[in-house]
Amino acid sequence: MIGKKTGFTPEEAGYDADRLPYLNQYFEKLIHQKKIISANYCMARDGKVFADHALGKLSFREEDDRPLLPDTIQRIASITKLFCATAIWKLAEDGLLRVNQRVGEIIEEFNEKPFYAITIAHLLTHTSGLQPDPGCFENKYHQSAWDFIGQDKGKNWIAAGLKSGMRTKPGEEWAYCSFGFVILGEVIARISGESAEEYIIKHIILPCGLRDTGFDRERKEIAGRANIPNEHMEKYIDSILKDTLEKNDEDSFWNKIPNTGGGLYSTAYDLCRFGTMLQQGGTIDGTRIIGRKAIEKMTTLYTASHIKDYCWNAGGHYRAYGLGPDMRCNEASLYSQGTFFHEGAGGCCLIIDPIEKLVAAWFIPFVDDVWCAEPLYNVAAVMWSGLK
Predict the structure, then answer these.
(1) Nearest CA to 24 among 51, 6, 50, 5?
(2) Is the pLDDT of residue 283 over 80?
(3) Bridge partners of 342?
């Protein structure tokens, strides 16, 4: 285990210090069981960072014994959606949009049936009725928005994506839709006059003091600090470091589409700092990022009891969701009711408990990209068990 010095001890943050060695042992067991390659976590309570640790290897290669470090940069995947949602709520509190506003008032392609009734709130909560991500349902003939966008080759990516049609009417079902968050990125761009990425960096990442967070992974200084969870990422990082990364017209086309569904990289410390800002009502170190009332509304339960989740064989259970974050809290959850969070594929997690004022961010690259529950849900229980 490699630990980075923090500003506070667990005791000063009201946390049982004996639970951290147990947490480290639990991660080591998962590494030994070959469920995860490594683990990197950062925890803070009431703004006091008391743990920033890394365990395991930097690379999936058995022969590569370089250690993962606390400041290793990793892809946060869908946790990007929390940054996107925060940007939407900043625009809302500035009076530049309404979350119950029809998307068609901003993006003309949505002014057609069956998309006419879709609102920004529907996109934030995965209840738009748009076709979900590939793999959500077992259907080898399914064509997602991305399939149609790829076929369109840049003519009109929004219209192309909408060719995939609707799964349900808006507000009837929860179905995970990253395309909806890409559309939210386009909303941010059209309302703000900046690209969504520029807006998020300028108005959230930089004022929040996130030094190792961004969208541009093709810089050598970023690639040189990145983890290597699989062969695909290994080749990508190697091409950047050796100046052999090839770009073509298709790359240019995809780069024009907002990267707000999953394009950010970060560190556990930066993610914990972002979560702490949200936990503290939108302010960190005296800098206001977003207002308290906007965060309260973003983290208010939006979905009603009739909203069911059938994704990934969920079986039609009610899906508790806020206007941006996941808000599930069940019999296995040690965190407080009202806690909000987001997972990222690969995987990683950020959880904010507003009652206990505990924030935890962690990366747990899955072996062979095979998802499992223990590094996420079991780990969260261990983390929350240390609260005094």
Answers:
(1) 51
(2) yes
(3) 350
